[in-house]
Amino acid sequence: MSKFLTYEERLMIAQGLKEHKSFGAIGSLIGKDRTTVAKEIKRHSFEKKSGRPGYPFNACLHRTTCKAKKICGSACSHESAYKCSICPQCNELCRQFVEEVCTMRFKPPYVCNGCQILDQCTLQKMFYDPADAHIAAEKAVSEARCGILSSEEELARINRLISPLIRNGQSVHQVYESHVNELMCSEKTLYNYIDACLFDVRNIDLPRKVKYRPRYKKPEFKIDRGCRIGRSYKDFLKFMEDHPELPMVQMDSVIGSRGGKVLLTVHFVESSLMLAFLRDSNTSQSVIDIFEELYRVLGKQDFCRLFPVILTDNGSEFSNPKALEFTSDQYRSRRTYLFYCDAGSPYQKGACEVNHELIRRVLPKGACMDDLTQEDICRMMDHINSYKRKKLNNRTPYETFSFYYGEELLRKLGCHPVAAGDIVLKPRLLKK
Known about the structure:
- Helix content is 38%, strand content 9%.
- The protein has helices at residues 7-18, 23-30, 34-44, 90-93, 130-145, 152-167, 172-178, 180-183, 187-195, 233-242, 284-306, 321-325, 350-362, 374-385, 397-405, 407-412; strands at 45-49, 124-128, 248-255, 262-268, 273-279, 309-312, 337-340.
- It has a five-stranded mixed β-sheet with strand order 5-4-3-6-7, sandwiched between helices. Strands 1-2 form a two-stranded antiparallel ribbon.
């Protein structure tokens, strides 16, 4: 018997909480001790600020008796709220705010799953979600066994410290011994990170290492597969069967030279329009940053209209689906649904792969993109999106997208038409 909880066992824990079962009863169902169940719930529960139907989150002790109005001034954006206690900004602006905390959160079962008055409560809540818990547990186990143990912010900090010194001719050993208290990792870890091309410096910058014959094959950094739960290609087909009216967007990466800049491509299948975004490295954070910028530029309504469903592959840059699916504000509202193709099945997003052939006419495989800017990439995509397609009845993706969504959205996305006689799909398009 495995010492780790399975996803099915976590589902049984969630069901037991909903049915008001004790930790001992839940433990008997899954064959674990009650303390294991208690630790699982405490470790993987999360806070959520949510209200009840018709009322926003409000944790004020005086929320039921308060009659205050217009606390935020005459320019209140919630004019329908006849009193401030039903305004989402009430707790933030009111000087008489006194927080009320539900005491049920501090005794078993420690969460609000199955609470009988949940639909009447506007206080801060605690929840146990089996999918989130399984993803977090799988990630912890994966990171404990192999892969990168540092966050992207930590890697950036180490990179800023060691890269300039190595470029000045210092060895990794010299840098490590001089800054051991600042690095907070082993010397071997630094070599592993350089091997994985996670820093600005490469093995070529280490004079002695390039002379050594590698003793073993460099291990690949593994990523957590728990994020695929509920987001497989089978789940995607089921979702589209239930929501046939929703347009689909396919997403992928285009790699240039090894360790260099990469492209994130977003393909609107219905119109064949493709967007491309230049990234300094192929990380999940770089994809998240692009989505946050798109959400800011487009606004909630247009973003949800353009990106209701996204299908992508199993690349590590897409391994944080919740950061893409939900907004980064305190409300964490859903803005899209993300699904993954089966491993080794690029044909499942064939429309995107076919459109990459046009990009490769301008940027052949192995071409270095380090000297390019986002303006260069936008110019290339303007030429590609102005290229007539037979499957669109000899219309361009730009024209088709404009027909469905209007010119205003194209301007927000930074797309511009190119005359048919001016289209260039050769590497010279980006020659400087």
